Amino acid sequence: QVLERRSFSHELVSNGKVNARNKADLRFETSEVIAHIYVRNGDRVRKGQKLAELDKFRLEQKLSQSEDALLKAELELKDVLIGQGYSVDDFGKVPAEIMKIARVKSGYEQSKSQYELAKRETEHATLAAPFDGTVANLFSKTYNPANTSDVFCTVLGTGNMEAEFTVLENELAFIKKGDEVTVVPYAGGSSFEGSVSEINPLVDANGMVKVKADVDGEGKLFSGMNVRVSIRRNLGGQLVIPKTAVVLRSGKQVVFTLKKGKAMWNYVHTGLENAAEYIVSDKSRRGIEEGLLEGDTVIVTGNLNLAHEAEVYVK
Questions:
Q1: Residue 292 β-bridge partners
Q2: I want to staple 106 with a disulfide (CB 3.0 to 4.6 A). Which of 76, 100, 130, 250 is the partner?
Q3: Among residues 29, 47, 55, which one has the least CA distance to residue 151?
Q4: Under 8 Å CB-to-CB from 108, ≥6 apart: which residues?
Q5: Backbone angles phi, psi at 226, to 5 degrees
Q6: What angle do CA 257, 263, 267 make, to 5 degrees?
Q7: CA 123 to CA 60: how far, in whole Å?
Q8: How much is the pLDDT for 244?
Q9: For residue 222, which of 252, 253, 187 has the smallest C-alpha distance?
Q10: Who wins on pLDDT, 189 or 42?
């Protein structure tokens, strides 16, 4: 392979987990009997779609009663204001302090509060999906009272996932927000692309830094999955060789180049790497004596048993 400068993508590899960026634990606010459950675990739902519904008979009766009480309180409020010398046409001109006292004396504030509460309980007797996602942790059954202290179900936004992983402190210089990442589940299957979204500015006791990346899960990733994360960053034009080109001789890195039919021994130093390639030291730079030059023909295979100036032929 003829050595030339080309774009090099530095790669860091780490282990982590993916979690849904959008996650909602849904609960009923009253303990009425569950009348209908419209979904099951694993079902895809759209924003606003009905998930489950309580028996609303008691709630609707309570709402109707509180509405009647509110109307009565409004009439009582008018009587109080008329008793203060205001006509119906002047209610808008009543001073705020007098209006506040009249509302309390007539019971209007309490009735309004009870009406708003009854209205909210009736509206929330139907659970709806807050966003597009997948249903999880749904274990309740119909014809049983809803438990207001327990989560009825969870909705996970499995399209927009977040991978959380750690990198070493000395690798921070090679990672920044926006760098491309590839996420591969250990359970197998496809890989998923994303980008670094967050770097926590804190090094823990083990010298590790937490990093997060936004990942398009395409609805195929499960929240909590263990994954392998590869972070790539383009470092521009570099002298790059395949890892197979490097052999060890007496504990030192050696690369053989081809010159006039002979294998020439070259001591080198490798720098950053990815899964298949190294950046190799460049002899054209001042102070570097062990390395290669652009244009060298590098032997990349069949080099394990070569010696200096051994005669070779290229297949």
A1: 282
A2: 76
A3: 29
A4: 70, 73, 74, 76, 77, 102
A5: -85, 135
A6: 55
A7: 10
A8: 92
A9: 187
A10: 42
Encoded tokens for 166: 């750690």
Beta strands 160-168 and 208-216, pairing class: antiparallel
Q: Pairing state of beta strands 270-273 and 246-249?
A: unpaired
Name the pLDDT band for 67 (thresholds 50, 70, 90): very high
Residue that the structure tokens 């692309």 belong to: 193
Read off φ and ψ for residue 296, nearest 5 degrees: -60, 145
Sign of CA dihedral 164, 165, 168, 174: negative
Pick from 28, 44, 47: nearest CA to 36: 28
**Structural tokens at position 261:** 């039919």
Q: Which amino acid is at 79?
A: D
The Cα 166–Cα 208 span in angstroms is: 6
Return the CA Rg of the chain: 35
pLDDT tops 90 at residue 205: yes
Q: Considering the entire predicted model, what is its pTM?
A: 0.63
Buried b (16+ CB within 10 A) or exposed e, 84-122: eebeeeeeeeeeeeebeebbeebbbeebbebbeebeebb
Output the CA torsion 74→76→81→87 (10° steps): 70
Q: How many CA atoms lie within 13 A of 100 on its CB side?
A: 3
205 DSSP assignment: T
> What is the band of 26 on the pLDDT scale with cuts at 50, 70, 90?
very high
Task: Report CA dihedral (217, 221, 225, 226) to the nearest 10 degrees.
Answer: -60
Nearest to 222 by CA among 285, 104, 133, 132: 133
Q: Which of 67, 13, 4 is nearest to 276 (CA)?
A: 13
Alpha-carbon distance of 195 to 181, in angstroms, equals 5
Residue linked to tokens 């250990």: 186
Q: Compute the distance between CA of residue 128 and CA of residue 138 in angstroms, rounded to an integer.
A: 14
Strand order through the sheet with 246-249: 246-249, 252-259, 262-267, 310-311
CA distance 112 to 119: 10
Tokens (6 digits) for 299: 């032997």
Percent pLDDT > 90 in the chain is 56
What six digits make up the tokens of 227?
Answer: 């994954």
